[in-house]
Design a protein that fits this description.
The chain is α+β, with helices and mostly antiparallel strands. It is built from 7 helices and 5 strands, in the order βαααβαβαββαα. Helix 5 (about 95-105) runs antiparallel to helix 7 (about 145-165).
Length: about 170
């Protein structure tokens, strides 16, 4: 194999879907109420603070009750309707560098999947769903106990958030 040939590392991701009786709008509002409605400029924060301690302090000020903050969102529903798909779909990226570092210190390639992507979808009969891929199923592809432990912690925090925001009021 030459240096130009990529090394394939197969893995299997596990998709989780949390169905909700909430409307799409109510689900989106519940999620954004927790993680914040405005994306956090995390790269700007890193540039402004020299020490880990000062960076950590600033990051904590942006973290919502679940331990996550909003990094980005894309309204897929805004463009898929042009192709004839009349559903509301919102892709949201959330994370927390203070959680991510617990994994990246054991394998920096875990950064491919941190922060985490969520997909909110409008479903039939006024319902909605929140779908994501379990982070540990993406990050831990070779034996690495410390990474697995950290990734399972992220899995638990994410599942708690998903269950809370999708639950009926």
């Amino acid at each position: 194999m030459s240096a130009a040939d990529p090394r394939e590392i197969p893995f299997v991701g596990v998709r989780l879907r949390f169905d909700s009786t909430k409307s799409f709008e109510d689900l989106a509002d519940a999620l954004l109420a927790d993680v914040g409605g405005k994306p956090v400029p995390i790269d700007d924060i890193a540039a402004r603070f020299e020490s880990w301690e000062s960076y950590e302090h600033e990051v904590r000020s942006h973290v919502g009750p679940s331990g996550f903050m909003l990094f980005a969102q894309w309204n897929h529903g805004g463009w898929i309707k042009k192709a004839g798909l009349g559903r509301k779909v919102l892709r949201i990226v959330i994370g927390n560098p203070l959680i991510a570092i617990t994994m990246l210190r054991h394998d920096v390639t875990a950064g491919l999947f941190a922060p985490v992507e969520l997909l909110l979808t409008e479903e039939q009969h006024g319902r909605s769903a929140l779908t994501y891929v379990r982070p540990s199923s993406l990050m831990v592809i070779e034996p690495n106990r410390p990474l697995r432990t950290a990734a399972l912690g992220l899995d638990a925090k994410l599942a708690t958030l998903a269950a809370r925001v999708t639950a009926a009021d």
